[in-house]
Amino acid sequence: MSIPRVFLYSIFHLLSSRKEEFLLAFFVLTAPLQIRWFLKDLTQLVDVEWTQAWVWLSDFVLLALVAVWIWRGGHKATRAMWPILFSVPVFVLAALSPNPILGLWSAVKLAEGLALFSYVRANKNIAFSRASIISFVAIVTIMAVVAIAQFWLQHDLGLQKIGESELSPNLPAVAKFELPDGSKLMRAYSLAPHPNIAAVIFLAGIFVISWLYIKRGVGLVWRFSFKRLKQELVLGVSLFVLLFALAVTFSRSAWMGFVLGIGVLVAGIVIIPTLLRVYIFEALRFMLLVIAIVGLLYFAVPGMQIRTHINSQEQAVTLRKFFSEQAIEMLKEKPILGVGPGQFVEELAARHIVNLPGERLTLGPIFLQPVHNVPFLWAAEYGLPIAMLFLLFGMWLFLRKLFNIIRESGPASSLQRLLAVSLFASFVSLFMFDHFFWTLQQGRLLFFLTLAFL
């Protein structure tokens, strides 16, 4: 065999499906982490996260993963990447926008998410491999322990090399809230850039635990066994740790998504006959366990009871109202083409500059954020036509999965599909109250991963 052929055979062996599993597992490990390198500010706004270009470790891993897939799959893999065409009109809008560089960077990040979506849709056997599941469980467990330790100590753990932010209740940019005695309580960030993103990662982990718990209904015999006791301890402790970590992020929108998602999961098991016969007892047991743990955390974790009350005058509410009003104004002025991909914050700043020598910005840094509603963000930046296209595509995937659950005869596969629908339903509720699923790396990757499971 000639040297070139030996070389090509060696590369093919290196890029075999087995190696691809470990590459995907490494991507699962790196995707939630805030490991990144700054490129440049893409506007005249300085130190504004939403108008900067960053390169993430997960970018490189995903690029390698897609390259391996195309090498292995050839034309079949290329054809499977048709969803990336949804980014084409965004690239066109970017070229026509007031800030083409920022717009093109936003379009590139959208294309990246669509590439991940395409890969997972075409390779679900690899996506659900043992290596990927172990990696996900490992990183979520590590992040949960870090979050609990941060809350306990009320400062960071010095893990900046793997993405931890510098944290303290005394730092102005750190998320915190005031207790009745006037002291400040810091929300846990874990290894994510914001508590809400950490909360969503824990939420995904909780749904995986729910699936592992409920799926045991197949062939389950109601008698004592050490095997079952071991399962109860492992799953119960894991669920407690993740719910504890979710609690110390104090993310109200994540708890809302949790209630909605778990409600959809249990309701689906009750409504669908094939699932009702097999899984109803395990689903009820799981619900009782969740209620017991949440009740314990509600009374035991300082600040939990305070965060359940929402004051219409608090900053989290007034800011969301302000951003929504600004998005509606932008949409009224540019309903077809929008203000440009990724350019909501830049447009917001431009609307609040005093026309005096030096052009003084009247908004503080806390006001320079995207609108906390993803459909509003789509409409304001891309215009109504593209926003409607995105919404219709998501609805088509969601309804298609629902019909597949109803038609599916096997209870195990139906439960997996119901889990994907439940997780997506919980994320949709978060869509309405935050923007990170579209504007931050971890949220965007998690969103497209969940969308691919539909």
UniProtKB/TrEMBL annotation:
Lineage top rank: taxon: Bacteria
Main localization category: membrane
Domain spans labelled O-antigen ligase-related: 238-391
Short name of any one Pfam family annotated for the protein: Wzy_C
Membrane topology qualifier: Multi-pass membrane protein
PANTHER family documented for this protein: LIPOPOLYSACCHARIDE BIOSYNTHESIS PROTEIN PA4999-RELATED, TEICHURONIC ACID BIOSYNTHESIS PROTEIN TUAE
Protein name (Swiss-Prot/TrEMBL): O-antigen ligase-related domain-containing protein
Organism expressing this protein natively: Candidatus Terrybacteria bacterium RIFCSPHIGHO2_01_FULL_48_17
